Amino acid sequence: MPGSDELQKRRAAAVSRGVSSLIGSYVDHASGGTLTDVDGREWIDFGSGIAVTSVGNANPRVVEAVRAQVQRFTHTCFMVAPYESYVAVCEQLNALTPGEHDKRSALFNSGAEAVENAVKIARHATGRPAIVVFDHAYHGRTNLTMALTAKNMPYKHRFGPFAGEIYRVPMSYPLRDGGLDGASAAARALNLVEKQVGAENVAALLIEPIQGEGGFVVPAPGFLPALADWARAAGALFIADEIQTGFCRTGSWFACEHESVVPDLVTTAKGIAGGLPLAGVTGRTDVMDAVHPGGLGGTYGGNPVACAAALAAIETMRELDLAAAARRIEAVMVPRLRDLAQRHPAIGDVRGRGAMLAIELVSPGTTSAAGGPAPDAGATQAVANACHEAGLLVLTCGTYGNVMRFLPPLVITEDQLGRGLDILEDAFHKA
Ligand SMILES: Cc1ncc(COP(=O)(O)O)c(C=O)c1O
Description:
16 strands; seven-stranded mixed beta sheet; binds pyridoxal-5'-phosphate
């Protein structure tokens, strides 16, 4: 096997520079909480491939399910010749997503594709055009989802023109909106919707219950329930994009549960299938079934290998109670992050839920056009680089590039978690 240096050279000659990587090392194998590169170097994984490998890499149950499925058949296209595992994944989604009402699901390949389909379904079911999204939102990189995503660089820059009938309103962002309470933040957003869009034109409000790429922004309590109530009264749909937050990541199956919010539609992907590409849209039967037969689909959506992996991953989450594991990770990490923040005033906020946690780095004592203290993207990058040098994979995010986010696999061991936090602390001392 060639080493990482040689692979970097081959990559430069073969792969578009538009696709970048966090580190220059190439993976040879990975397990529950670690990645090992082709030169034998090990990394503690605080990223899970961006919130995907919640059950760990090479999870034995997922490996066995995939192996068995590959031997039986790899693809028929569900739209041509259906198979049981697709139905079984939909049954699981219908049972696990919030709300006891009758539901239906449809499967796709990626998060962006699920969001696109949720928008299609919402427009079709309501007969209305407008989709309302929020500041700092991230919903994907296809044309429609770029329009839904807030941040220009790197996601949208010079990739337009974008799809129409998308309206953006302010998010609840306690660090940066003066600590506006949830109801007031919702009223601020919905007043704009009523005045600038018109409630009767709104097909759906689309929101991540905790924002992912936008900075792990946790809205003030009451914000999500107020949005959901408004949507119900307006005859619009409330779509929860649980692509990053779903499947035990935040300490419950879905993040909406923390505030007892029941969405009309839920999008899922990432953690659903132990690393295989699979995504879903799940929702009220009357909404999902409003679409004519043949109106939804795609060649690979709900591929049988991905479905087998999903059933194994979901079984693992249930058996190991990975929602409780996420809460345990929070219980270990948050006190240490708070302690670190005491010693390093550049940490302006510690936030998140379960195993979806973040620190926001700022210039202490300043105020800025971003609202609240000035974001410090440089310090964030320096600490992240020091972590990578020392063998800890951490991701950054945020509209201002100043948020370090922590998404360890939910099966990470306490020892790995502790060692990762030691590296993070050292990186703060050195950076
Ligand atoms: C909340 C959310 N929605 C949608 C997406 C897009 O998913 P994908 O990258 O699978 O297209 C992501 C990916 O990060 C996400 O975090």
